[in-house]
Amino acid sequence: MGNPARAAAGRVSRRLAPLWTPEKVGGSNDRHRGSVCAGCPPKPMWPFATTVVKGASGSADAWAAMSSRRNSPSTARVTLADLRVRCERLESVLRQALSSRSAARAERDSARARLRSAGDDFVVAFEAIDARTEAAVAAAELRGLLCNDLDIDTMLTVATEHLLARVRPANVAIWLCNSRGDHAVAAYGANSVSRARAEASLGVLGREACPHLGNEPVASVFDTATEMVTVPPPGGGILAGSRAIIAPLVFRGERFGAVLVFQPASEAWQPNAPEIVASIGAVLGEQIERITRIVVQRGTAWPSSPSEHD
């Protein structure tokens, strides 16, 4: 066994041998004096440089290995396949979103259409209610004006004035018919056309238009009055350039005459004019039936009561 201290010193000296120079160690009897020992391998002047270079070389190899793996065909195929799958999934999600959006838009448009239709129905219903209400008011007013009057001429005059006030600027004509269905003018209310001027045209209407009216209290509206007759009077008479509303005087399916309202085609009808004319025609039919019934009853001889001695 040698001296441990000497062995350790030898190891240290061998490690530090590259740092020694002949100038610094000249005159020493050490075996490394002035030259490098032939038995020792040459070592670099800075030992840590080898470690640094080795570390750098290892990192470069690692990066090269990673790059080769990343750029290898097998890895590229997997990455492209994965991207393709992801793109397909994304396209599917987008398609579903677009489909859902289209369905939502279609449902929204359908809901809007239903709401619009419901709104239109409500408007029509309210207009119909308003028309019926105004017609009922006009009929009630006429009944209140007529009261229990049994004079047909007075009744027709009051009805004519009532219609003139309701449907201005129109003109009003009322026909009564007999048991044979012949119609004759019984009342006339002038606003812009005198009765003398309208007489010929009213006669044509009494022969052609009035007999074709039904037995329901419904008014017929003509934007062109000449459409009411097949053969209009010469030059069209009062029908030329006019619009008209005509309704029967009916009660319980029996027709007693007709009522006509006409005015220039350039003038617009008053609101709910057809309903008002039809309701007035129904009231007149009811009043004529009542008067006729009372007159018939008064003209009938009541049977005499038997005497007490019989």
Give a nutshell description of this structure.
This protein has 310 residues and is α+β, with helices and mostly antiparallel strands. It has 2 domains: 49-132; 148-298, 2-Layer Sandwich (Beta-Lactamase), CATH 3.30.450.
Jot down its keywords:
five-stranded antiparallel beta sheet, disordered C terminus, Beta-Lactamase, 7 helices, 12% strand, alpha+beta
What does this entry look like structurally?
It is a single chain. This protein has about 300 residues and is α+β, with helices and mostly antiparallel strands. The protein has helices spanning about 5-15, 20-25, 45-70, 75-145, 150-165, 195-210, 275-300; strands at about 170-175, 185-190, 220, 240-250, 255-265. It has 2 domains: about 50-130; about 150-300, 2-Layer Sandwich (Beta-Lactamase). The protein is built from 7 helices and 5 strands. Strands 2-1-5-4-3 form a 5-stranded antiparallel β-sheet, with helices on both faces. It is rod-shaped, with a radius of gyration of 59 Å. The protein starts with a helix and ends in an 11-residue tail after the last helix. Residues about 20-35, about 45-55 and about 305-310 have low confidence and may be disordered.
